[in-house]
Specification:
alpha+beta; 2 strands; globular; 3 helices
Length: about 100
């Protein structure tokens, strides 16, 4: 699992654009989301928790691979477990 690369990606404009698409695009659950373009007018110092974008362009790809299920017991904390789960999903999406 490539946690270091995921941590570089985490909280990026692209990461938040994926969350935006998941939240507002109905029936995107069975698809991987590839962000082609995202624009948030106030990106520098922007509060990314608000998920406000002026424009997002994405492609959807059917999920062929499913990420493996991780055991909570393999992690020291709940936060480490959540990061591990998100990292394995991110890595699976990149492979698929």
């Amino acid at each position: 699992m490539d946690v270091r690369s995921y941590l570089d990606y985490k909280d990026s404009l692209e990461d938040h654009a994926v969350a935006f698409v998941k939240k507002y695009l109905a029936n995107s659950d069975d698809y991987w989301i590839d962000i082609l373009y995202a624009y948030a007018p106030e990106h520098d110092g922007y509060d990314m928790c608000s998920l406000e974008f002026e424009r997002v362009i994405c492609s959807l790809f059917p999920k062929k691979l499913r990420p493996p299920v991780l055991s909570k017991w393999d992690f020291e904390s709940k936060d480490d477990y959540l990061v591990g789960c998100r990292a394995i999903v991110w890595e699976t999406a990149r492979k698929d």
